[in-house]
TrEMBL record:
It comes from Paenibacillus nasutitermitis. It comes from the Bacteria. It is an enzyme of class 3 (hydrolase). It catalyses: (2R)-O-phospho-3-sulfolactate + H2O = (2R)-3-sulfolactate + phosphate. SUPFAM superfamilies: ComB-like (SSF142823). This is Probable 2-phosphosulfolactate phosphatase. Belongs to the ComB family. The keyword ATP-binding does not apply. Keywords: Hydrolase, Magnesium. GO terms for molecular function: 2-phosphosulfolactate phosphatase activity; magnesium ion binding; sulfopyruvate decarboxylase activity. Coiled coil: none annotated. Its EC number is 3.1.3.71. The keyword Magnesium applies. The gene is comB.
Amino acid sequence: MRVEVISSVNEARADRFTHRTAIVIDVLRATSTIVAALQAGSSGIYTVETVLDARALQRPADLLAGERFCRKIPGFDLGNSPDEFTPEMVQDRRIILTTTNGTRGLHKAVRADHVLAGSLLNLSACTQAALDLRRDIVLLCSGSHDEFALEDGLCAGAFVAKLQAGSPDGLEMDDFAAAMLGFYRNSTGQLYETLASGATGRRLLKLGMARDIKRCSQLDSSDIVARMQGGMLTRG
């Protein structure tokens, strides 16, 4: 099995996903929020790129969720903080989600045979699901404003470590995957501190959202596999 890591949405070309399983990563916060929403009982999450697309897709009882520049979009039901997605709010309801980077990443990956939403929260469950699909794997770091984001690279390295441990026949990796593996190993035990030190983490801290960073750094706190099926992310 081979694994590659793409550093940001801006570097994602369609041919890099063909005949592969894609794991899209946006630790702060889209894929963490997707996992939290499914854990809380949402029936599924449609990801769209624009606010207009979200409003056009909404049906009665659907919830609109999303952010721009880390802030909740005016008029939407929910923002992009995992703690907002409680069972009382989302149980059995469909969510239409648009974010600055993560939802773009999920759309970039549609050429893959399988698309999973990965985060630190569901690291082990998502890794096992990817291994079970028996395809080469591409990890897409959504990044921030078309640039590499520290927290996504850290999570990609964690996935590479798990994939390596779960591949009895060995794991081939590209150079960037090897670099992120080393980054993760050097950051073990300091996940919150590493997330908080990146550009996105610093921005969230400035906005008083340290709790979101804490939540998103909780390794393997969920067994949810968020898988794209028919254009919607559901519990795989």
